[in-house]
Design brief:
The protein is α+β, with helices and mostly antiparallel strands. Helices cover 36% and strands 20% of the residues. The N and C termini lie far apart (71 Å). Bound molecules: 8-methoxy-2,3-dimethylquinoxalin-5-ol (I6G).
Length: 668
């Protein structure tokens, strides 16, 4: 065959494979068998192998993933990726529809486009002249992470658009998810490999998409439904949202087949109940439905609140409950030695996910709910929260049930367990000799808000402790490439990347360092207060409990824990080794302008112009304390889009509410 013929064959093969992908994935109507498809694919691979110079980045063979990245680049969204307001009840939805009609000044039924809401990860995919050039996560809505290599491994996402009148630029937005079957297979595999399974399909999808090594993403069963557009250039969009979705399908993009256009709120509710009935039969997990005003002109009229469109709402399904039997109870040991009882359940399907564990929180809860081993219990699962035992079905109690007894010794290191009076939790007294506590301490030290060592995740820490390569956090700075490269799922490149991140973490801030040490009861906010007050480690270390209590918001309990921590010689040894290894931070600046000193803020919901962490940092620089929950001591609650229950609590306590604009004015 001449070279020209070979080249022609390659081009034709690519076209045929793309066409079959479209029939298979977008139209859900394959027109050839899997074996025939595989034959075409193999032939293309063989020809490309013979002529690598003819491989193009958008060839269907180029979805195997690329070499691992050190970190993800940032992508700024020219049109923000918003979130949605939630409706939890039919009444919430009726109120939404009422607001829409008031703003549109109409009594007529509004036309809505409805679709199931998937529990996945929102992404934006940019095509230029029809070629996929970039894909990113939502991130904080304004800036996301560049996950192009990972997105390209998902076979149902076209590497180039098909059809006519392809826009010069098209940013398509969608939800990447993991179908239930794939999720179950992935977790079964993880179990066989003695790895920690993913808690739910959402976490599995997010974990897979945020892999620095796209070759791993390529092995994960990810799918997408596209639900809208961002930036477009040189294209005239139709006047209805539902028509835009049809255009997307025409360009080869996958759109949910369950989308329906309805009129008025009653039809919305009927759609909702239809989907709720269908939910357990679907191949993927959904957590509600989304309604959007269908006419773009009306959408425009309605506009946006801070972080969300006014023309759309997510109507959530209620938390799901099911009954099963507690087969055993085991105790997990956390960073501070706290024991958490976990019920091992007879596996049960709840909303399409198999649940085999549920938290029992602590011994008080067990007593309060009267839970015994062997009991039939109601468990509840809501979103990604760890399932919990709600109550016991007493009528089903057998004579054989057994009392749940707090162990006398730690299940991991066999040290004594102590139950301090006034405290709900029981603790292992093994401290650093307990591998479970050591692992959790190291995971905390490396975590994003502490020393931020990217790549030193849970599984790796478990391995490093099990192989005795890490006994305490200071050992992190003495790890070698050889030690790392020899571990499971690590190679030379990943070892080098991790060492780079470890080196980077040596430059930190005083408050991060204090937080990273994991002193009991010292969270981020307390660490900041301590850093601002004492400025240097030696001053803090010498402080008495009384002096510690002079710090804003530090009471006798925290002061005692902090003083005890620095009195302990083995803690000081670790600190000295950390400093000797090169961990350092700039001097803490004495700020002369602390207008919010003594004021407590709470943030809820998503902000449009900054992340919650950024807002927190800015407020704290001005002297404010930013707390995690609302109490009578809270001065202000900053309310972003999709606020949580903190907003209700703030309203109940009559705490002053600030929207994002008000916050920005205060920060000026
Ligand atoms: O997160 C989302 C999931 C599904 C969405 C969404 C959606 O439509 C089906 N639509 C919009 C407009 C937004 N987020 C912002």
């Amino acid at each position: 065959m001449s070279l020209t013929d070979l080249k022609k064959e390659i081009i034709q093969l690519r076209q045929r494979i793309d066409e079959h992908n479209y029939y298979y994935y977008v139209l859900d109507n394959p027109i050839i068998s899997d074996a025939e498809y595989d034959k075409l694919f193999q032939r293309l691979k063989t020809l490309e192998h013979q002529h690598p110079e003819w491989i193009t980045p958008d060839s269907p063979t180029q979805r195997v993933g690329a070499a691992p990245l050190g970190s993800f680049a940032e992508v700024k969204h020219d049109i923000p990726m918003l979130s949605l307001e939630n409706a939890f009840t039919d009444e919430d939805l009726i109120a939404f529809d009422q607001r829409i009609r008031e703003r549109l000044k109409t009594h007529a039924n509004v036309e809505y486009c409805c679709e199931p809401k998937l529990d996945g990860l929102a992404v934006s995919i940019r095509y230029e002249k029809g070629i996929l050039v970039r894909a990113s996560t939502r991130g904080d809505g304004t800036t996301g992470e560049d996950i192009t290599d990972n997105i390209k491994t998902i076979k149902m996402i076209p590497l180039h658009l098909r059809g006519d009148s392809i826009p010069r630029v098209l940013e398509v937005r969608g939800e990447v998810y993991m179908p239930l079957k794939g999720f179950q297979l992935l977790n079964a595999h993880a179990k066989r490999q003695n790895e920690k399974p993913f808690a739910n399909p959402r976490n599995a999808a997010a974990g897979s998409l945020r892999q620095l090594d796209s070759r791993i993403t390529a092995l994960r069963p990810l799918e997408i439904f596209c639900y809208g557009v961002g930036v477009t250039e040189s294209v005239k969009l139709p006047i209805k949202h539902s028509e835009i979705l049809k255009n997307l399908m025409g360009w080869g993009l996958r759109v949910s087949p369950l989308i329906e256009v309805v009129h008025g709120v009653e039809e919305c509710l009927r759609y909702y109940h239809r989907m709720a009935n269908k939910r357990s039969k679907l191949l993927f997990e959904i957590d509600g439905v989304v309604y959007k005003v269908n006419h773009l002109a009306e959408q425009e009229k309605l506009g946006y609140v801070t972080r969300a469109p006014r023309f759309a709402i997510a109507h959530k399904f209620p938390a799901e409950e099911a009954s099963t039997i507690i087969e055993a109870v085991q105790f997990q040991v956390g960073r501070t030695g706290a024991l958490t009882p976990v019920a091992r359940l007879k596996p049960i399907h709840v909303g399409g996910v198999t649940i085999s564990n549920a938290t029992l929180h602590n011994m008080d809860e067990i007593k309060r709910k009267g839970i015994h081993i062997g009991d039939t219990v109601i468990i509840r699962r809501a979103g990604d929260v760890i399932p919990e035992v709600v109550s016991v079905v007493l009528v089903k109690r057998s004579m054989q049930v057994k009392k749940i007894i707090l162990p006398k010794h730690c299940p991991i290191c066999h040290s004594m367990i102590e139950q301090v009076e006034d405290e709900k939790v029981a603790r292992c007294t093994g401290e650093l000799i307990c591998p479970a506590q050591r692992k959790e301490t190291i995971k905390h030290f490396a975590s994003r808000r502490a020393m931020d060592i990217e790549g030193l995740g849970d599984k790796l820490v478990d391995q490093l402790v099990d192989h005795q390569l890490l006994k305490n956090v200071a050992d992190i700075y003495h790890l070698t490439e050889d030690q790392l490269a020899n571990l499971e799922r690590m190679g030379k490149k990943s070892a080098q990347n991790l060492l780079t991140q470890i080196e980077k973490s040596k430059t930190t801030t005083f408050d991060r360092f204090l937080y990273a040490l994991g002193i009991r009861e010292v969270g981020q906010a307390t660490a900041k207060q301590l850093a601002m007050h004492f400025k240097t480690l030696s001053a803090l270390q010498k402080a008495t409990e009384e002096e510690l209590q002079m710090v804003l918001d530090i009471g006798p309990v925290v002061a005692a824990h902090a003083a005890h921590f620095f009195d302990e010689s083995r803690n000081m040894d670790v600190i000295h080794r950390l400093l000797k290894a090169g961990v350092h931070w700039p001097d803490v600046k004495i700020s002369h302008s602390l207008p919010f000193l003594g004021k407590t803020f709470v943030l809820t919901g998503t902000l449009r112009t900054m992340t919650r962490d950024e807002a927190k940092e800015k407020l704290e620089k001005l002297g404010a304390k930013v707390a995690g929950s609302v109490s009578s001591k809270t001065n202000y609650v900053v309310v972003g889009a999709d606020p949580g229950s903190k907003l209700d609590k703030a309203k109940a306590l009559h705490v002053e509410l600030l929207d994002e604009e008000a916050l920005q004015r205060m920060l000026l």
